Amino acid sequence: MIQEDFLNKTDQELVTLTLKEKEHYGFLIQRYEEKLKRYIVRLSGGRVEDANDVLQEVFIKVYRNLNGYDHSLKFSSWIYRIAHNETITFLRKINRKPTTYNFDIDAIQVKTLKEDLNIEKEIDKKRLAYDVAKVISRLNPKYKDVLSLRYVEDKDYKEISDILKKPAGTVATLLRQAKEEFKKEILKDPLINGPDSHFLN
Amino acid sequence: MENQDISKETLKKIEEEKITPTPKWCFVCGDYSLWALAVVSIIIGILALGVIVFLIVSQDWQIHNYLQGRLFWHVMISVPYLWIFILAIFFVFGYYIFRNTKIGYRYQTYLVLVIGLSIILVFAIASFLLNISSQIHSVLSRQIPLYSNLIHDKNDDAILWENQEKGLLTGKVVGVVDSADFLIIDIKGKAWNIKIDPKKISGEPPLKIGQTVRLTGAVEGPGIFLVNKIYK
Q: For B66-105, what is each residue's pLDDT tens digit?
């Protein structure tokens, strides 16, 4: 019953409670653990064990900086920003670029992507998600970042702007270019764009 | 995904390593420091541009009417490179600092640049009009000899006015006889009796002793100069 009470609290309320009593931090961790782990794995294209190490660093860093959390931002944007920066720092440390993306195809927001790309026809969502993951993984990292945040993490422009620390206008431009690149890649791929394609048919 | 209790492990690590949230005042101080640095950079940029405007406006551009073919050379040596460098450094620094404030990332680059430059320009012109720029230049010229060597101002052009063959003369007023007759000592220490051509000059405010003047006209006799224009 008590646990349920905490589960119903907002992120901001949990931050305030954590600053009074650190045990409450567990609820925030539980709330973001899976989402952030998936995000870190996708972003780094790395192993889950590495992602766990990065994730723990993220939670420690978030805890240390709780007093610096700007309440004008969504807490989720702030914690994703820290996760993004920690992952990039980790990749720099091991001297690797985020060249591959591990996409969890169940997480791809097929409906939103279909609407954004004007694909009206009802199609096999699972197959489409698979094709999308394949195409996104071939794109330039700067496009992967925004597409992943928009269509996998389901973040809006403002949130993406806060996570990547880029102006909303730049995010909109990046997303537009990313979608154009994405369409081009689809049209180039005979497996996706062929007669059996579940994507554009 | 591998099952690992991140929540427990993190809380354990926090407990074991006695990790505590950084106090709020540290973040507040950090924010204020960034804003203070950004404001100081902008102020230095304003003062630098103000002095640039002052130095350009106060250059002795009239002399080109009398010394032909030296305009390009004069423009090149008159550019206040030091102040342009200071302006550029502090503008870039201020821009970088602003970008690193909590809200700095939200604005498009062109918007930050246009607004930043507009603020600097408006206040720099105000600083010039309020004579703050000239004060800065004159204090630095007096206090720092190296500064005088690096910056070319109208005093450096005085030697060009010491050219009576071309009808140019400069010096300090040492005596005023009447509205059409006064005495000066030129930069070589020679005394001149200056006669004003009443057909060319009329209604000029009276000159003050100690005032530096630049004159155009012609030598009328030994130590006598007939003036047709006075630059104060």
A: 666 667 777 888 899 999 999 999 999 999 999 999 999 9
Is this prediction's pTM over 0.90?
no
Query: Which residues touch A44 (CB under 8 Å, ≥6 apart)?
Result: A50, A51, A54, A87, A90, A91, A98
Predicted confidence (pLDDT) at residue B159 exceeds the cutoff of 80: no
- Residue B16, domain member (yes or no): no
Give B-chain residues touching A77 at CB under 8 angstroms: none
Higher pLDDT, A117 or A53: A53
Question: Distance between CA atoms of B1 and B48, rounded to whole angstroms?
Answer: 59
Q: What percent of chain A is predicted at pLDDT more than 90? A: 42
Nearest CB to A161: which of B7, B14, B106? B106
Say which CATH architecture domain A105-193 belongs to. Answer: Orthogonal Bundle (1.10)
> Measured between alpha carbons, how far is B134 from B106 in angstroms, rounded to an integer?
38
- The structure tokens listed for B211 are 């005032």
Contact at CB, A70 and B102, closer than 8 angstroms: yes
CB-based contact (8 Å) between A70 and chain B? yes
